[in-house]
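I'm stuck. Please check this protein.
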Amino acid sequence: MAELPSSAECVIVGGGVVGCSLAYHLARAGMRPLLLERGDFGAGSTARAAGGVRQQFTTEVNVRVGMLSRQLLEQFEDEVGSTADLRQIGYLFVASDAEQMAQFERNVVMQHAAGLDDVRVVSASEVSELVPDLNVADLIGGTFCPTDGLAGPNEVTSGYVSAARRLGAHVVEDVAVETIESDPRGACAVVAAGSRISTRMVVNCAGPHAGVVGAMAGIDVPVKPFRRHVFITESFSLARDPPFTVDMRTSFYFHPEGEGLMLGMSDPAEPSSFDTNVDWTFLEHLVEHATERLPALERAAIKTGWAGLYEVSPDNQAIVGESQLPGFWLCCGFSGHGFMQAPAVGLLLAQQITGVGAQIDLSPFSPERFARGETTPETAVI
């Protein structure tokens, strides 16, 4: 285990992609943060992410954050020095009822106003052109954004870690935080692996475990973990390579993965837990909806599957900002969007922490919004 310093300008708790992005952006801004991860960097929820990168959301702040993340991923190799494995295959959302379609149309008006110019409403026939194998009999239409797509969770995380190290950040794996101390002025120390690290700034990037880390500081962080499954088919091809396709009625989604497809769907009945064991009975439920929307899947075989954890906030929006304990910051609660928002949020929070001023207003993510009753739920959640 690496030796821990006795003090640090900033201690980041949690080495998933969000914490690693923040460590990199703080180091790039001239700070020397200490990043602590209890396991391996990016081995938790990040490693189990579906890899989606999109800008199509129902709140303006998420659209703007998505656009900034896309920009940062497009320039990732030049700036960070390694590939992000960005594949802009597009995201296609499809609707089978009039109410959902009307919401899609309102979304696109807002998205255009926010600057996302290339998203568009598509008819059922255009959906069929994009994914010829899709059952469109009951579809009204959808929305499509060609600059959405996929990136590599491992590539992005490891790229940020390596670049953060080069810039002077102290990044340490296999070190679990035990407690967070405070005094009348606020956060004052982190105790990890038996060592006390004095600091006036702690950032909770612990993902599904953000509530646990918050409790160490005496702060109630309204983030709960929920299991989500993904499955990979054996080698299997469609008439043409599809975009990342989402059926909003059932939440079933699929996208190309290697020589097959990645399949996923949320389960509204899933209770909050830290369980990441695969429930293979859920696959039967998924297959029922999957083969209805994509009949070609009847000839596919499942190669493997895994489960990861979403870190869900009460309004499905990230929680980013300083808590009621001075010096104890939150950067968590991404509700399934952590990987795709990590590049932008790491930069924006680093700008806020270093006093530059975030280039996108982060007040909709403020931890205080729940007490004020000023929440705007994000509904484009898969």
The mean pLDDT is 96. The longest strand covers residues 302-312. Residues 91-146+224-312 form a domain with the D-Amino Acid Oxidase; Chain A, domain 2 fold (CATH 3.30.9.10).
